[in-house]
Amino acid sequence: MRQDVIKRCEKAIGYKFSDPALLQQALTHASSKGSLTLDNERLEFLGDAVLGAI
Prior knowledge:
about 55% helix, flat, mainly alpha, single chain
């Protein structure tokens, strides 16, 4: 993901990521073919587990 896209996303949500790769992972769907990055399934699983715990 390009640096300018990351900056625009951070500005839009009012949060600066200490690890911009997390933003890219969160926005990458598993059906994305040819992606060299991790997809968002792990983060989705983590979010579901946290919500289930509260």
